[in-house]
Amino acid sequence: MHRTTVDKSGVHTTDITLSNTGQTAVGMDGAVLGRWVFDIQKIPKKTKKLPRVHAFDEQPKILDTAPTPGKPVTLSGQRKHLPAFVIADAANQSGVIFAVSPESFWQFDIARTKSGRLDVTLVMEGIGRKLAPGDSITAPRVIMAPYKGPWRAGLKRLGKLINTKKNDPTLKAVAKSFARAEARKLRSLLHWFTKNITTRPAAPEK
Question: Which of 50, 89, 118, 122 has the most crowded Cβ, counting Cβ within 10 A?
Answer without folding.
Answer: 122
